[in-house]
Design brief:
α1 crosses α2. The radius of gyration is 21 Å and the shape is globular. About 40% of the residues lie in helices and about 20% in strands. The chain has 13 helices and 19 strands. The strands form four sheets. Strands 2-1-11-13-12-15-16-17 form an eight-stranded mixed beta sheet, with helices on both faces. By secondary structure, it is α/β, with parallel strands linked by helices.
């Protein structure tokens, strides 16, 4: 069940009501590439970095085979990839790219340019730990570092969601003129083979529509200024305008998600609620770990626990009010962070959840669980132990607010 602002949507089972596709065995990266093939962007500029490389490798095959009309630009760095996308989008092209980890970090400067210029670029981010030390496996530190760059961020639990999010991201970006990141967990989703329902090409084409840019640098009859010097007399007003656009983005995300549901039968909103109706203990998670949490909740429920999951799909802009409504009546909340915020209290999702609850009438106890850094696995048993601890918190037992899952210590492994 996916939750919007106070509305619950459950995809119907009727095969006759929705446009159906063909189920294929795809890894997450190939699912993204398949969506890009169907989108057929005007420009793709990319640079390889593990575990994102397979996306652009597969898409390059589509280009070589003549299956798309895309101008593919092989650049010398990720900074250049985003720069090329910015130039293409400013000229009126539908532009896409993908990256991960240090590649996203190298784009940092240009991320702010893309969002400030209100360019509808779509980028897949195959989440991977930031160096140092060198680690090519999953955590969310790369995208979390860019959470305030003005990009919409959508997170994917599995390959199907990565595919669906990519298609929706194009329509979202071009409806609000803001760039969108589609995030999927490196290796866990990007390299895992799963059944993915690939929609008919014509249905995807019809859904996203033809891109008709509002402005173009190439329109010499209607010249515009892009990226000028913006000094104190006007800079603040321009930032306010950008802020207002971001505040309008949630309505667009819902609108596109509902249209996707009506056509294809898969519902998407800000968040997904799993067994939340009577939940007293709620875990909050993003990405692939949500699937393991659902399995743990089913086991806990069979043993009498009232546990539930709130899965965050749209992390930026953060859906404060919807989250507040769903969490405020819990006895205890466990926020699962796959990233650190070294100068804050706990992980970034933890601080956002606590901020969302600040204006609530009730203030349930919120515990932060740091897990999965650098690709470390999280198990059913560990999540069940987390649920047991949260039940103790709900009874009033004291617990340190920051907990580490699967951490080796002198006493053993935490939440083993």
């Amino acid at each position: 069940m996916f939750l919007t602002e106070g509305k619950a949507v459950t995809a119907e089972k009727s095969e006759g009501k929705f446009i159906r596709g063909q189920v294929k065995g795809l890894i997450g990266d190939d699912a993204i590439a398949e969506a890009m093939r169907q989108i057929n962007p005007d420009v793709v500029a990319a640079y390889p970095i593990t575990p994102q490389t397979l996306i652009v490798e597969k898409f390059a095959e589509f280009v070589a085979d003549g299956l798309v009309d895309t101008e593919m630009i092989h650049v010398e760095s990720e900074h250049s990839a985003m720069s090329a996308c910015i130039g293409a989008a400013a000229a009126g092209a539908r532009a896409m790219t993908s990256t991960a980890s240090q590649g996203l970090a190298l784009m940092w400067e240009m991320l702010y340019v893309a969002s400030s210029l209100r360019l509808p670029i779509v980028m897949a981010v195959t989440n991977r730990a930031l160096n140092s030390n060198l680690n090519i496996h999953c955590d969310h530190s790369d995208a979390m570092g860019a959470r305030d760059s003005g990009w919409i961020q959508l997170y994917s639990e599995n390959a199907q969601e990565a595919y669906d999010n990519t298609i929706q991201a194009v329509k979202i970006a071009e409806s609000i003129y803001l760039p969108v990141m589609v995030c999927l967990d490196g290796f866990v989703v990007s390299h895992s083979l799963e059944p993915v329902e690939v929609l008919p090409d014509e249905a995807v084409k019809e859904f996203i529509g033809e891109f008709k840019p509002l402005y173009s640098l190439l329109d010499v009859d209607n010249p515009i200024t892009v990226g000028p010097v913006d000094l104190p007399p006007y800079y603040m007003e321009h930032k306010r305008s950008q802020w207002e656009a971001i505040n309008r983005a949630p309505a667009i995300v819902l609108e596109v998600g509902m249209e996707f549901y009506k056509r294809f039968g898969r519902a998407y909103g800000f968040v997904e609620a799993y067994r939340l109706e009577d939940a007293e203990i709620i875990l909050v998670a993003m990405g692939s770990a949500a699937g393991t949490v659902k399995a743990a909740i089913d086991i806990a429920r069979s043993n009498g626990s009232k546990a539930g999951l709130l899965k965050i799909r749209m992390y930026r802009p953060f859906p404060w009010s919807a989250i507040r409504k769903l969490l405020c009546n819990a006895k205890a909340i466990g926020v699962m962070d796959r990233a650190l915020s070294f100068n804050g209290e706990g992980g970034p999702l933890f601080t956002d959840i606590k901020a969302a609850l600040y204006e609530a009438e009730k203030h349930p106890k919120v515990i932060n669980y740091i897990y999965g850094l650098g690709g470390r696995d999280i198990t059913l048993r560990q999540i069940l132990n987390i649920i047991e601890q949260l039940e103790a918190v709900g009874r009033g037992e004291p617990v340190e607010p920051i907990q580490w899952v699967g951490l080796r210590t002198k006493e053993g492994v935490t939440f083993a």
